[in-house]
Amino acid sequence: MRKRIAIISEHASPLAILGGVDAGGQNVYVGELAQQLARKGFEVDVFTRREHPGIPRCVKWRDNVRIVHVDAGPVEYIEKERLLPFMPAFRDDMLLFIETEQLSYAVVHANFFMSALVAMELKARLGIPFVVTFHALGYVRRMHQGARDRFPEARLQIETDVVASADRIIAECPQDRDDLVHFYNAAPEKIALIPCGVDTEAFYPVDRQLARMRLQLPATGPVLLQLGRMVPRKGVDNVVRALPLLKSSPDAHLLIVGGATETCGEPEAEVVRLQQLAADLGVSDRITFMGQKKRDELKYFYSAADLFITTPWYEPFGITPLEAMACATPVIGAAVGGIKYSVRDGKTGRLVPPNDPAALAEAVDELMSQPALLAAMAGNAVRRVKAAFTWRMVAEKMIVVFREILAARQPEQRQTADLDFIDGAFSHLAEVVEQCSRHLRKPLLEAAEQMSDCLSKGGKVLVCGNGGSAAESQHFAAELMGRFELAHRPGLPVVSLTADTALLTAWSNDIGFDDVFARQVQALATKGDILFCISTSGSSPNILRALEAAKEKQVFCINLLGKDGGDAAAYGHLNVIVPTGSTVRIQELQLHALHTLCGLIERKLFSNSGSETGVESDKIAVA
User: Per the confidence metrics, is the pTM higher than 0.70?
Assistant: First the structure.
């Protein structure tokens, strides 16, 4: 039987047009998460405030996802800063719906503090546990906006009460987690770090020339993009102020997407302010205000741009940088909140201070003057999104939280929850295996060919890794030095760089642990050898030092990595990257990759079929 989940999002409906004052990332978050939960076997009801009289009470939006419109206050748009007085009515109408429909929800997921207030009161009346994603915190907002923050003072106490009452709290980035602990005394064990995601089926790279042609933009010339809600805290004025300061790209054109629809009446106050600012700075002819655009059009804007820029004063997470990266567009973002978590400075874009047009202009000039760097960042951006920020991954982590709550509250159902966890683990592994079977076929074949060629010519393969990867390094070397599937064959010179206690302690004491593998590469490697590095993150300093030493010795470097490849990917002549953000799945698939390499190498070096891939055993140098 499908478990039923209630998602509350009082002001942000998945049905809203994005880009308006109160329609942005939360709308996307709620809609995408609801769809993914439904695909994972849940029945999902999304409760949001009714704003239009003609809209039905209940809309079947997707398979197993309903949008339930709650009557709370006048049936019209009301800005979210004025919605708090209507939350008792929201609660009562939601209770009426639950009673009338005779529904039973396993968990409530509240989004934003007012939804959390409702969830907290539902828990008190019905005993339904709840999870909260705040999306923005009152203390942090007030710290940045001061008197311009128009939310009622009661928000801070409500958030404090919610933090104490919630069964789990979702932090969207490390800064969000730290703020919850610092400002609200949240218990760290109640916090789960689950970032926002991006739909990689809706956002993907489109050829830049085709994208510009579709948008009727000039085929040549630098294009900068700002996309999102038109509110002061988003810092769009910072981008406008940077435009006249550009040196390497003085002809750059800025597209601003968001705000009023292109067919509606008067523009929003923020758009008017930005247009006046552009006129004052003499750059009106270099800026086009595009208005709101449909979601399925956004990939063309991202793909048409050379750079995506987002420099808000603060940002709890920010989905638009992920959408840009999914479209292979590097991001220049403010070093605040979630942006400094999603954008890797120097790898997928640049981070700059907020409210600093000169720093922003300098970053734009730096990237636009280096096409090769931009191209590398584009590739890194796509890999990072696919490895760590898909909505499927977000939903899987959220389901783990739901199951933990249910197991803790219902001891008699723990065995079922544990079995569900086991089923989920196998299911997730199967999904990753299927994904890897498509993405890793050619890299694994090329790696096997490189190693076989090296060994057949008298070279050797040096293997290294840390922790679990060290064990896999030793396992790989043992299978090829001994045997894998062929019982009677010569041993192969595949050496796991040592990590025994005596050498580790000696080198760590006398030289430094960061050089533990590099020293062995310098001593053992010769031109024509291969260095094979195994790492889940690709960021271990001793792995990077080993790769640097290998390059100095003219040794071919092959990396078996995970996530987005990390810094190690830049050193590899050949990278085999397991495309998932789960360390557990990476280790499982890396072991499978190692076994596959062993099998391929044996086939190529000791084939009895007489094919050109086979070589005689006496041509192989053995120790």
Answer: no
